[in-house]
Automatic annotation (TrEMBL):
Protein name, entry field: Ribulose-phosphate 3-epimerase
Record lineage: Bacteria, Pseudomonadati, Bacteroidota, Sphingobacteriia, Sphingobacteriales
Protein keywords: Carbohydrate metabolism, Isomerase, Metal-binding
Reactions catalysed: D-ribulose 5-phosphate = D-xylulose 5-phosphate
Catalytic residues, chain numbering: D52, D192
Associated pathway: Carbohydrate degradation
Native source species: Sphingobacterium zeae
Record: residues binding substrate: S25, H83, G159, F160, G161, G162, D192, G193, G194, G214, S215
């Protein structure tokens, strides 16, 4: 966990001091009452808003564009963790920053010149992340690992919410955490897709730092309590 960065966020946004972060995915919100869902996340134990921007080309779905993201940013009191599921993301880095992004994550599979893209994100003053599709090995990040603030491991195929969790994710998290040791000890590992209370503890034990939860939170009877349950998971407490 990047302790210095996490502490700065906790101070700026009055966040919890627990060791892992929860990022509800706005893709699963009710767009007819989006303002209410934003306020719910503000009032919850969540740490970030996870924002999926999809173009219908890189992934077989279209989510929402930057005007909606700007509307979210206007009312959000927590950082926007923006996941660009688009081709040629370099064209949109500036508008992404201007629309309120604190973290910008691009896909390895969509970047021809990944090192240059990461540098451009950092020049904008944002944290730089890379997302990996389920079929993409973590070993491919070796040459840029030291330049990353975050790696988002897709635990479902990107494009749609509510998919079944892919179990190979645990091994990928463990491999990435081992790769980062001594190279980038502050790397944040984020898991996106199918995260629930059934797999959250195992993901954290494997080395994850940030849990993205969409349908599991927004479709819950009590979203506030669901976020709290995810946040309160303590992998150091042994159960009998």
């Amino acid at each position: 966990m990047n302790k210095k960065y996490l502490l700065s966020l906790q101070k700026k946004y009055n966040m919890s001091t627990k060791s892992h972060l929860i990022a509800p995915s706005v893709l699963a919100a009710d767009f007819a009452k989006l303002y209410d869902d934003i306020i719910m996340v503000n009032n919850s134990d969540a740490d970030w808003f996870h924002i999926d921007i999809m173009d219908g080309v890189f992934v077989p779905n279209i989510s929402f564009g930057f005007p909606v993201m700007q509307a979210i940013a206007k009312h959000a009191t927590k950082p926007l963790d923006v996941h660009l599921m688009i081709v040629d993301p370099d064209r949109y880095l500036q508008v992404c920053k201007d629309s309120g992004a604190a973290i910008i994550t691009v896909h390895y599979e969509a970047c021809t010149h990944l090192h240059r893209t990461l540098a451009a994100i950092k020049e904008l003053g944002c944290k730089a992340g890379v997302a990996l599709n389920p079929h993409t090995p973590v070993a491919l990040l070796k040459d840029v690992l030291a330049d990353l603030d975050l790696v988002c491991i897709m635990s479902v195929n990107p494009g749609f919410g509510g998919q079944k969790f892919i179990n190979n994710t645990y091994a990928k998290v463990q491999e990435l955490r081992a790769m980062a040791a001594g190279v980038n000890d502050g790397l944040l590992i984020e898991i996106d897709g199918g995260v629930t209370t059934a797999n959250a503890a195992q993901l954290l034990k494997a080395g994850a730092d940030v849990l993205v939860a969409g349908s599991f939170v927004f479709n819950a009877t009590d979203p506030l309590e669901t976020v709290k349950t995810l946040k309160d998971i303590d992998i150091h407490v042994e159960t009998i």
